[in-house]
Design a protein that fits this description.
Blueprint lengths: L2 E6 L2 E6 L10 H16 L5 E6 L10 H5 L5 E2 L3 E2 L11 E5 L2 E3 L1 H7 L3 E5 L3 E3 L13 H8 L2 H10 L2 E3 H7 L4 E3 L4 H13 L3 H14 L4 H16 L2 H11 L10
Parallel strand pairs: 2-3, 3-6, 6-8, 7-9, 8-11
Antiparallel strand pairs: 1-2, 4-5, 9-10
Helix pairs in contact: 3-4, 4-5, 8-9
Amino acid sequence: MVVTYEKHGNVGLFTLNRPEARNAVSHEVSSELEAHLDNFESDDDVWVGILAANGPVFSAGADLKSVSSGKRIETEKGGFAGLVRYPRTKPLIAAVDGPALAGGLEIVLSCDLVIASSSATFGIPEVKRSLIAGAGGLFRLPASIARNVAMELALTGDTISAERAFQLGLVNELCEPGAVVATATALAKRIVVNAPIAVRESRKVVLESQGRSDEDGWGITKEHFRVVVKTEDFNEGPLAFVEKRDPVWKGR
């Protein structure tokens, strides 16, 4: 298997497993990751995901050997890596240890939160090969960091360090090499103590309201609040507070 998937309580762990190929995205990687995402999304007991990678490189992007052989490295549903256009509802944390370049950075940008070790680097070097970042990097990067810095990365193809990415807001938390999964798991545990549907609807509001007016934002917020109000967990939260106990979320 070139992508593995494990469940640890309410947290799902996806791992890119082609270290010998710098975790480049092949037809098999895209197909397997999408299949695991299908399982992740349909499993009511898993509320948050972590995407990590084996080896010294998080991902070097597209596998050109796979491309040259005529195999599609995109899926119909999820697109590149089976992920960048996948209609997710649950939070996904990228755990980046080593370079995330080209499509590798676009995988990271498809996630909601990013943990990076001090050995991580980020870049979209496609212009150095007369290509463009075609898996979302050119519009997701300026939505994540300052526009002029995103423009610099897009036009020069140069990389930035994990520390610089943290300063720019691309990375949520820095850690030592080898500690990204543990650090991402700690972050995931901070999320799963909360009501899962409220978390998902909050995520949707943040994404859908980005770049929109305040008026639009109010409407989007109201729409998703209606979903939360109809859940069993909506009653459990206040009740647990009154009874001075931890809430027991059902995710419904």
